[in-house]
């Protein structure tokens, strides 16, 4: 009951003209950026991070909520109409979605995607409203050793378990940890890796890192591919904008199954929605194989419905994990954690007590944002696709200018412009050589937390390392992580043996 009362107060804050405007702006910008291949919701949040510092925290995070879910749907538009998903989270839904588009059912595929995103997001948001406060109460049991175990769990899960190459994932993690220690050491007061520059005493601004890594890194990557043949073709969004009763009957179970698969993955640090969306796709394909006339491979509506619901359900519960535990379970959540810190806020169990107005307004904005996105995207999805026709050299030049202006407006330092270019080149090299970006972002965000909690644990125990594995929570986290790593190693070794035998 308390949750409903608090949520009602949150709606009272959101449903004001100015905050509704921020929701609308966030939804529009998120969808527009998400449509563009290679960008997505994380990129949209990174680009808007410098711009929102002129807003009050509630207005800024309400806008971010619209950006987050708008970016997820925008990712799917490009995948369905062009077979080039805006982000990796939309790949699974684009497989059958693009086949539906080639079969003249593009509008039905887009409608399935929009409704699936709405259902998955709404159900996840309801669960977050009722269970995030309970999760925050559970988090009060966490001490230094438990928070360190949580950080290590996130590091290893995202860099070693989820990525295709363990070595590349760990290399990206190491780069992020190296960047995270730049600045003044809080315990000793000594400067670390600052090269004598006073501007680096506070470390490298997270805005510089996110904008450089995501925005400029992608710009340089696109420029590096210039001149290569591009055989992608934008299909017209033909067909009706609504679903028939037969299509709804096929899609509804897939929407619910996808939501059920996606909800728990928002709390587990797996790097984003890639794993649950492909799990949902695989589940729907297996179920379809039992039918007399399987539809997969010919444009199965279930292949769009399940993954889309799973992706948005994961994003919704990821916000719950961020608010209640302070744990970013994806690259987008890591950037939002950085946004909280820019406003002097630390997500976690104390946030519900220290900033209840912000928390409940943000949760209410999830529901409002979903409705706004459904209204925007059902009839206007074909218009968003027109952005794909903008020449890339104009589009990415504009992104570069916007990114550089945003970074300079935030700090007013010339050094930050140099650093953002350097980080952008690093992002380009990481993309060129297949190093994942998510482990690096997670390491930069959680690295200082892990170091601080480790030092606190050692100080409390007077140097006894046994404190790190002395509680049931930390032992459980390390045990689950060990089982996951062993399982991944076993699976990959078996796959390599099968490939060797087949060759």
Automatic annotation (TrEMBL):
Signal peptide: none
Domain (DUF112) ranges: 20-441
InterPro entries per the UniProt record, alphabetical: DUF112_TM
Transmembrane segments: 20-49, 61-82, 109-132, 144-163, 169-188, 200-223, 318-338, 358-381, 393-426, 433-450, 470-490
Keywords associated with the record: Membrane, Transmembrane, Transmembrane helix
Protein's name in the database: DUF112 domain-containing protein
Organism the protein comes from: Microbacterium testaceum (Aureobacterium testaceum)
